[in-house]
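User: Can you write out an input/output pair for a complex, sequences first and structure second?

Assistant: Here is one pair. Inputs:
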Amino acid sequence: MASELDLSRDRLDAPFARRVEELSGENPYACYQCGKCSAGCPFADYMDALPNQVLRLVQLGDESALDLSAPWVCASCLACGVRCPKGVDIAKTMEALRLLALRKGISPAPATPDRPCPQIALVGAYRKLTP
Amino acid sequence: MPTNPSRLAYFPGCAMKDQARPDELGTLQALALLGYEVEEIPRWNCCGTVYSLAQDDLMRHVGPVRNLVRVQGMGEKRVLTLCAMCYGTLTRSARFVEEPERLERINAFMDTEDDFRGGIEVVHLLTLLRDEVGYEKLASQVKRSLDGLKVATYYGCVLLRPREFAVDDPERPEVMERVVEALGGTPTVFPERMECCGAYLTVGRSDVVEDRAGRILRSARGNGADLVVTTCPLCQFNLDKRRPAGAPSLPVLYLGQILAWAMGVDEPAVAALLTDEPATGKPVPSGV
């Protein structure tokens, strides 16, 4: 009988996906990989993986998502989230990936100005890109 | 005691005292002409400029919440911001700590402050002009019309996203265009008006921001704009100071500057922005 089938995501052994979900508050399995986030992302050209691909790695429980530059190029502009047909706020997933690195003391993105910057930019960069 | 509706608690934020000073000087005088008693909140601190998107990270909300405690201390129920980023951080924190457990923890942490009780509304200049002043009254206060001036309305991110505290429809906004029209100008709607300039990436990835700025400015110019207006000091910096070689030279001004100019505010930082072209009598930007 169909009602006895266990189709729950609880069967997946993906602690990494759980951790990302906990931190972000967003269910990675809500994503059905339509790619709308990547199509509208103003920074996709500069990323080593498209936003939907980053989310796919999280769904697969693949911690190599932490080695990507994509979350560090994401500027939290939230264009992806307002357009997602499944209501996934992907920028929160990107933030969770940054935090998993930052909380281990790893900050791979440059946060030191190479040219003069106003304090509004410096404070933003320090808060997003440094532990 | 009912609060005076024309009294406005005001949170400036760092940029209004520095690179966005002309915006503050102009806007505050314009608001006075519109009948507001604007009062800067005491002992304010940096809002943090960006907010945490994490479920924990309560520490990142202390800065904004301290400012909301100051508003509460003034006996006010709302606070005005001119800066889009301050609007974002203050609003996000106000909503985040609505949850009782978070509120209790943050109050326990802010040992020397009064407890934050919640219920403070964060108001941006644009929504104030739309919802309270109204476009008609605004138009009736115009002393120097922007007639003939094509103004590209650049929203950027924070005013429109996330949806929960967007100042307008996040995909089809019109509030800034309506304000420009009320001031007599012609809004230039261009595709990149809602696209991020790169924000804080300007610190470590100015190459990316230069690309973004160039694309946004070319789009504005390509759609006929004489100048760009924004309410975000970081957008203003990125579009102006990260303007790549060969990109259109059109000026990037704050909304408050054209508001004040149109309302006839007698302020050097504002008056120098636009001049009436002798031949046509129409305003033109005085240069970047």
